[in-house]
Write a structure and sequence with these properties.
The complex is a heterodimer of chains A (about 110) and B (about 110).
Chain A (H helix, E strand, L loop, with lengths): L4 E3 L2 E4 L5 E6 L6 E7 L6 E7 L2 E4 L8 E4 L6 E5 L8 E8 L6 E2 L3 E5 L1
Parallel strand pairs in A: 2-11
Antiparallel strand pairs in A: 1-3, 3-8, 4-5, 4-9, 5-6, 7-8, 9-10, 9-11
Chain B lengths: L3 E3 L4 E4 L4 E7 L7 E6 L5 E7 L4 E3 L2 E6 L4 E6 L8 E8 L7 E3 L3 E6 L1
Classes of the chains: A mainly beta (about 110), B mainly beta (about 110).
Chain lengths: ~110, ~110
Amino acid sequence: EAGVAQSPRYKIIEKRQSVAFWCNPISGHATLYWYQQILGQGPKLLIQFQNNGVVDDSQLPKDRFSAERLKGVDSTLKIQPAKLEDSAVYLCASSLEEREQYFGPGTRLTVT
Amino acid sequence: RKEVEQDPGPFNVPEGATVAFNCTYSNSASQSFFWYRQDCRKEPKLLMSVYSSGNEDGRFTAQLNRASQYISLLIRDSKLSDSATYLCAVNSHPGANNLFFGTGTRLTVIP
């Protein structure tokens, strides 16, 4: 069974630029999550989707971050404009309803 | 108070040793508990779910103590390949599947 796919794996941008990340969850997983993991910390949930609806986006900095899952499968996370403190690994995870979450390889973002 | 707290370590143990990690959580209503393993520059991988009755998978044992609001992970007969960061995760509230993660505990198993 294929795992969670993410792209790109690495991205380097300058502050104030925009960037987008893509995630394809495990087939059949209705729930999709985006996490931010800053070096030395555990992952922090940014947004949770159930199919194409948002379940929780309470920790998403909505002035600069946006996410969508239009057809209930793939998802994109966008940052516009980026700040230095956005440098982190952005992890996508998926799960079958309220079960264990499986993570993709992540996108390592460096903002200079 | 943080939702989930872990001792960041590092824990340096010899091969064959037994090592235990604890993780405390703040929300007494939390119902789902997990241990993840994360290798350097890799994504977290699910190691174990933690059940109320405790559970064991080979050399790994997970326990839940609701009264004191902590979960534990015990690794017996440590192998070099066990060297990694171990993250605990707790759901935010009953019925929710969004997880709060600890900062992780770094384990190094020494030959």
